Amino acid sequence: MSDQYWLTKAQLKRIEPFFPQTRGIPRMDDQRVVSGIIHVIRNGLGWRDAPTVYGPHKTLYNRFVRWSRMVSSTESSPALRPRAAHPTA
């Protein structure tokens, strides 16, 4: 299995506007959960095989499903498009 994957603060800040507002009980750390989701997908793991450092596998799965349903409304957003590489001189 590959090493753990962690989003940088800059990467997280770029996608934060797309997270739903917290109501009631505060949710688990977004950086931890999103990093866990990416780790599972990149390594072709089942949700139950996610390292516990990312939190409960059920949380990762539920958040992935919830966010996947929102993709159709946000996938055209410029903030989610890959940035073009800037040539250096």
What would a concise description of this structure say?
The protein is 43% helix and 0% strand. The protein has 89 residues and is mainly alpha-helical.
Could you explain how this protein is built, in words?
- There is one protein chain.
- This protein has about 90 residues and is mostly helical.
- It has a domain at about 30-70.
- It is about 45% helix and about 0% strand.
- It has helices spanning about 10-15, 30-40, 55-75.
- Helix 2 packs across helix 3 (about 55-75).
- The longest helix is centred in the C-terminal third of the chain and has 18 residues, at about 55-75.
- The mean pLDDT is about 80.
Total helical segments:
3
Q: How do the helices and strands follow one another from N- to C-terminus?
A: HHH
Give the end-to-end Cα distance, rounded to a whole number of Å: 38 Å
Q: What would you report as the Rg, rounded to the nearest angstrom?
A: 14 Å
How many β strands by DSSP?
0
User: Which consecutive residue ranges, at least 5 long each, have pLDDT under 50?
Assistant: none
Query: What integer is the average pLDDT?
Result: 82
- Judged by helices, strands and strand pairing, the structural class is mainly alpha
What best-fitting shape do the alpha-carbon axes yield?
Answer: globular
**Share of residues in strands:** under 5%
What portion of residues is helical?
Answer: 40-55%
> Biggest sheet, in brief?
none
Protein name: Mobile element protein
InterPro entries: IS402-like_dom (IPR025161), Transposase_6_like (IPR052909)
Organism: uncultured Synechococcales cyanobacterium
Domain Insertion element IS402-like: 7-69
